[in-house]
UniProtKB/TrEMBL annotation:
It comes from the Eukaryota. Keywords: Metal-binding, Zinc. This is Transglutaminase-like domain-containing protein. SUPFAM superfamilies: Cysteine proteinases (SSF54001), Ubiquitin-like (SSF54236). The keyword Ubl conjugation does not apply. Residues 303-358 form the Transglutaminase-like domain. GO terms for molecular function: metal ion binding. InterPro entries: Papain-like_cys_pep_sf, Transglutaminase-like, Ubiquitin-like_domsf. It comes from Citrus clementina. The keyword DNA-binding does not apply. Belongs to the transglutaminase-like superfamily. PNGase family.
Length: 687
């Protein structure tokens, strides 16, 4: 403890004096509050005695134990528990809101606002909620002391790093400014309507919109706000980009598509320079010896076309996509050779980290904790200004400070402030005021979170993008080659899976109709396959206007389609679908309700059909006697709560085990493959 005190005094003497002064003021206020309360209670007691004499009300005597003391308390139960709590406050100094009163006998019943003060035990015990927590958390105390010592050491390291920086780093801001300033012109390209339109044309907007709405529906949100929809769409845009853009280690041969090997740098051609490719890498084919050029384009317009590159191209192009869809976006420059994106999420009310190379979002500690990166400067560049956001990406600020040796902190702040003024020169005063308020909130949030341990249970992966040998050479592979974003401290989640149960139940009427109409097993299997094909065609149509004609069934199935239609009426209603007879006699399957409910249900019905076709093939006696497991899964439990020992983000959360689809059951932690019963989670339903 003495050592901690000495460190604290050395690191923050002014902070310590301020803390002592604050504690003295608080203690003085507490004493004044206590005296006021005692005065109030003395008046209250005199009033009670007078009232009791006049109304002849009976008072009770309680024996109240607190720590090693016992107090005899005379009390009129008609005054209620609140007054009783204030009386105990005058005796024990435990504020009413922190009191826990229990019977001090064998019953040990908790005294609450609903308790009858006439019948409760005469013997009571009072404890402070804070004391109770403290008495049961010796280990927490020990950890708290340890964290205090670590915090003090961090402060000391920060002071020493700043002191060293003042002596070792000059006031020249040239190198820092030369590194950052060129990116301002780059981010301004994202505001070009031609580039934005070119980007938007390559995005399957309706498909991503459908996926975003389904992701919200899986959380029980079928009527999301515009802000919630925008947030969900941004995440789907990230996942789509991750699947669409290609990482280039060494490009395939332009002549024969075989592997190539690096041959150094080449001279850029005018057509390459036109799109910002001042660097061109050359690669020789291992088979035909042809040279393949890999221009490092800097113009996102060209990257929308090529859809390939390394982290610079990925972040450059993805940030354009974000701006094209109206998201406030920043290009994030990490001086230790990485680039990513931030977008302002109206849903979260703050800037959100998005790494298109990794397909990971809102995990700013990915680089320090997952990749083991030794960060120094992380700078955000947008049309609205340039900002130092390094503190968002570290919990080791004292170590980061020791590596910030390009310019002093004052110089960095001054340079970025001047760049921001330059960016905002033409902004209206109202816009400036809004941005300045948001800048202030962001700075405060980064300072507040700098020493947070909220992300401790989250396991962040090492780098996944790029050749493994390249990642190892950069020391970004991570400490244990973990390749998944997982969490060992999971909340209890609610399963939104009633639709799964209703779909499985609906197949009972389908099979019953087959049996009642003497459809043989082979015919039932054929009808189910036709139904799967019809629903497959329906799924390919635009989700807002789904429609498929039963005339589209192949000729060999046209004869038995009339047998199918009467049997699937209830199933169609469950899927928010219906059959519709056209004027020309054609029968179509069309939407009957919320298109999102149909989108949510279709993957479930495909799995159910696959299971039923498989089980029918293995069924010896097809009839009503077979209407049980495994053929029918009736009255499946649903809408419970579920807890897991661990989860993966974003697609491996525990509720996916109950969503009625097959793909989510085959993804195991750390990329392994296996069956449903091998998922490394321990789910249970709380009914």
């Amino acid at each position: 403890m003495v050592k901690i005190d000495l460190i604290a005094i050395r690191v923050r003497p002014s902070r310590r004096r301020g803390l002592e002064k604050t504690l003295m003021v608080r203690e003085r206020r507490r004493k004044i509050k206590m005296e006021t309360m005692r005065f109030f209670l003395s008046i209250l007691k005199r009033w009670q005695k007078t009232s009791n004499r006049e109304n002849k009300m009976a008072a009770r005597k309680f024996s109240v134990r607190h720590r090693d003391s016992t107090f005899d308390v005379d009390y009129d139960t008609a005054d209620g528990l609140e007054v009783f709590r204030f009386q105990l406050f005058s005796l024990t100094s435990i504020p009413p809101e922190e009191q826990k009163i229990i019977g001090d006998d064998d019953d040990q019943r908790l005294v609450s606002d609903d308790s009858d003060l006439v019948t409760i035990s005469d013997k009571l015990k009072i404890v402070s909620i804070n004391e109770e927590i403290s008495s049961d958390s010796g280990k927490e105390k020990e950890e708290l002391l340890k964290s205090d010592e670590e915090l003090a050491r961090m402060f000391q390291a920060e002071e020493e790093a700043l002191l060293f920086q003042l002596h070792a780093v000059g006031e020249n801001s040239g190198q820092f400014e030369e590194t950052v300033h060129p990116y301002i012109s780059k981010v301004l390209m994202y505001e070009d309507p031609i580039r934005q339109e070119a980007a938007k044309k390559t995005v399957p907007v309706e498909r991503l919109e459908e996926k975003s709405l389904v992701s919200l529906a899986r959380e029980g949100n079928f009527k999301p706000s515009k802000t919630e929809q925008d947030h969900a769409f941004l995440l789907q845009l990230l996942f789509w980009f991750k699947q669409t853009f290609r990482w280039v280690n060494a490009p395939p041969c332009d002549g024969c598509s075989n592997e190539t090997v690096g041959q150094g740098m080449g001279t850029p051609l005018p057509s390459e320079i036109q799109y910002g490719a001042t660097r061109v890498e050359l690669f020789r084919c291992k088979v035909c010896s042809k040279i393949t050029r890999f221009p490092r384009y800097n113009d996102p317009l060209k990257l929308v076309e090529t859809k390939r590159g390394r982290c610079g191209e990925w972040a450059n192009c993805f940030t354009l996509y974000c701006r094209a869809f109206g998201y406030e976006s920043r290009l994030i420059l990490d001086f230790t050779d990485h680039v990513w994106t931030e977008c302002f999420s109206q849903s979260l009310g703050r800037w959100m980290h998005l790494d298109p190379c990794e397909g990971i979002y809102d995990r700013p500690l990915l680089y320090e904790k997952g990749w083991n990166k030794k960060l120094n400067y992380v700078i955000a560049i947008s049309k609205d200004g340039v900002f130092d956001v390094t503190k968002r990406y570290t919990r080791k600020w004292h170590e980061v400070l020791s590596r910030r040796n390009i310019a002093t902190e004052q110089t960095v702040s001054a340079v970025l402030a001047e760049m921001t003024r330059e960016c905002r020169r033409s902004f209206a005063s109202e816009t400036l005021s809004t941005l300045e308020d948001r800048d202030k909130c962001e700075r405060e949030a980064m300072e507040r979170d700098l020493y947070s341990t909220d992300d401790a249970p989250v396991s962040l992966p090492g780098r996944q993008s790029g050749d493994k040998e390249w990642r190892i050479s950069r020391s970004e592979i991570g400490s244990d080659d973990n390749c998944s974003l997982s969490c060992s401290s999971c909340p209890v989640r609610v399963c939104i899976d009633e639709h799964v149960t209703t779909i499985y139940n609906a197949f009972s009427s389908v099979l019953s109709h087959f049996v009642e109409n003497n459809v043989p097993k082979s015919g039932a299997i054929e009808l189910l396959k036709i139904l799967k094909g019809i629903l497959g065609d329906l799924k390919k149509s635009p989700y807002k206007t789904r429609r498929v004609s039963l005339n589209s069934v192949p000729n060999n199935g046209q004869k038995i389609v009339p047998q199918l239609l009467p049997s699937i009426g209830h199933l169609l209603r469950v899927l928010s679908l219906k059959s519709e007879l056209n004027t020309d006699g054609r029968v179509d399957i069309v939407l009957a309700g919320d298109p999102v409910k149909t989108s949510l249900s279709l993957p479930v019905v495909f799995k159910a059909l696959d299971d039923m076709i498989h089980d029918l093939n293995n069924c010896d006696n097809f009839g009503k006697g077979s209407f049980s497991l495994p053929l029918l899964k009736l009255n499946r439990i649903h809408s419970g709560s579920v807890l897991a020992s661990g989860e993966e983000f974003p697609f491996g959360i525990v509720t996916s085990a109950f969503d009625g689809t097959r793909p989510s059951k085959w993804e195991e932690p750390n990329g392994a493959r296996g069956a449903v019963n091998q998922i490394s989670i321990i789910p249970f339903v709380l009914l």
